[in-house]
Amino acid sequence: MEISNSEREEGRSSLIYRYITGQFPHNYIPTTLNPCDVNVDVAGRAVKLTIVDGHDDGEPHLMRTQQYRTADVVAICFGLDHERSLWHIESRIIEEVRELGRRDLPIIVVGCKTDIRGEVQRKLTDGNIGKTIVQSADITYALQRIGAALYVECSSLDNAGVDEVFQHAARLALYPPQVPPNKRECVVC
């Protein structure tokens, strides 16, 4: 399982750190964490996930190619408080995943930082407009364009939805979605 996005502060490393340690990283954590193996129970069956924290800043292209080609699932994160990170998935990351990975590689899009919604709502109520969150319509539109197998939201701070991200990833690795006949490619060499 590759967890990817090249934007900083969208919640990717915090999500992984929270899942692995059970704690939120209140202090700075590196932009990429070392790969680690975890077992996830899916309907009584143990599924081994190798979690790779993918970040393309300075990471060799060859390394990312290998990660995408061997991945069974890719989870791509964006910050719900950072519209640019969603745009970045559409404009850059998804192209790289499709180019370097298998054509049928299931993609989970993960909206991180759901805890920010309450903060933004309070500021709007108080008339103190600052941060905004990515609108549901924009997310839906992006998911359609990306062709994501699944969309989930989580908060590493509140530990809300964190386990579900990895449960869904394990299920998709075990039971990948079937590619409809009209979406299959025919290559003649």
From TrEMBL:
This is Probable GTPase Rho1. Pfam families: Ras. PROSITE patterns: RAB (PS51419), RHO (PS51420). Keywords: GTP-binding, Nucleotide-binding. Transmembrane segments: none annotated. GO terms for biological process: small GTPase-mediated signal transduction. GO terms for molecular function: GTP binding; GTPase activity. SMART domains: RAB, RAS, RHO. It comes from Serendipita indica (strain DSM 11827). Gene3D superfamilies: P-loop containing nucleotide triphosphate hydrolases (3.40.50.300).
